[in-house]
Amino acid sequence: SVYDPMIDQFLESGEELVEISVEDKKAGYVVTQLVRRIEKRELDIVASQGGGFVYLEKKPSESI
User: What does the pLDDT read at residue 63?
Assistant: First the structure.
């Protein structure tokens, strides 16, 4: 999957939130593909879109 390296780079970056752009792909399509990869890999991150942009964000850690 072309989306796995994007997810891996985000996880390795240590950032809480990143914006992603994929040439020639609509934001909705990219989010759908990222969500599928995230669910398959059971990762604690969220893919979302807003204003035509795609974002990857770490889920907030739950306080105990």
Answer: 59
Tell me the residue type at 34: L
Q: How many CB atoms lie within 10 A of CB 34?
A: 26
The H or E element containing residue 58 is strand 53-58
Q: Is 51 helix (H, G, I), strand (E, B) or coil?
A: coil
Listed by start position, the domains of the chain span 3-58
Q: What residues are paired with 48 via a beta bridge?
A: 55
How many angstroms separate the CA atoms of 33 and 63, rounded?
30
State the Cα–Cα distance between residues 64 and 57, nearest whole angstrom. 21
Amino acid at 31: V
pTM for the whole thing? 0.87
